TrEMBL record:
Residues 10-250 form the ABC transporter domain. This is Iron complex transport system ATP-binding protein. Keywords: ATP-binding, Nucleotide-binding, Transport. The keyword Cell cycle does not apply. Belongs to the ABC transporter superfamily. One of its GO terms (molecular function) is ATP binding.
């Protein structure tokens, strides 16, 4: 590398992905640097979640000579190792075993990419110390002993973000993180994303809620029908005209304190 160029966290070139018989991602070309903040917008069914599953190697691209997938500078990964380095927070509720786990232990499971702390897993003192740092970082110390299944949706989402943070290499992938959250929990989530971004954590946010995009995110990617249709700055792409075209409906837009709101 030359000068101050940063090795991309992610590099995709000419990536097509099929689900069953249907190709759902078409010729995806995308580079994201480590520590970068980016939001990916698009209507339901546009391929946003499939893109995340491609990054986490849950979906595999169609193989052809021009296709490239490089994550953290590598083309091949042991999936268990990759899961430990990718901080992924999905819109889905925690699994059954995680619901029976305390918040503190659920955060620690991020070191092992496991659903709970199974008896065969060795938790070191350094892991516990780091987990306490993360619990403070996500403002979850007050309910760390509570079972995840007894938490509010907002508390669960914070614990899942903490779980993602302990093992990740400074990149969080958030897939529709405000789903099922009430207004207060949405505000808390957005505040947490702002703090993490300001502290240097890279954020890749998948959403169709414009209000979820914190001011610290300036790069916007737009997807429609499995294709990237725009990639640029917030000033360029977060306009009523561009959003109306993306979502195929008339959109009004306003901005307040760095957050955009659409209706």
């Amino acid at each position: 590398m030359q000068g101050n160029l940063v090795e991309p966290f992610l590099h995709l070139a000419h990536v097509n992905v099929a689900r069953g018989e249907n190709v759902v991602l078409h010729d995806i070309n995308l580079s994201v640097n480590a520590g970068e903040h980016i939001a990916i917008l698009g209507p339901n069914g546009c391929g946003k979640s499939t893109l995340i599953k491609t990054i986490t190697c849950e979906c595999y691209p169609v193989v052809h000579p021009e296709m490239k997938v490089r994550i953290f500078g590598r083309e091949r990964w042991d999936l268990t190792e990759l899961k430990k380095r990718l901080g992924v927070v999905s819109a889905e509720l925690p699994g059954k075993q995680t619901l029976k786990t305390s918040g503190r232990d659920a955060v620690i499971t991020g070191f092992f990419s496991s659903s709970t702390l199974w008896p065969n897993l060795l938790v070191t003192d350094s892991m516990r110390v780091h987990a306490e740092v993360v619990l403070r970082q996500i403002d979850a110390v007050g309910f760390a002993e509570k079972l995840v299944g007894e938490m509010s949706a907002g508390q669960q989402r914070r614990i899942m973000i903490g779980r993602a943070l302990v093992g990740s290499a400074g990149m969080l992938l958030l897939d529709e993180p405000s789903n099922a959250l009430d207004l207060a929990a949405q505000a808390e989530l957005r505040g947490l994303m702002r703090r993490l971004a300001q502290q240097g954590t890279g954020i890749m946010l998948i959403t169709h809620h414009i209000a979820d995009i914190p001011p610290e995110i300036d790069r916007i990617l737009m997807m429609r029908e499995g294709r990237i249709v725009a990639d640029g700055s917030k000033a360029e792409l977060l306009t009523a005209e561009r959003l109306s075209d993306l979502f195929k409906t008339e959109v009004q837009l306003s901005e307040r304190d760095g957050f955009y709101h659409a209706w």
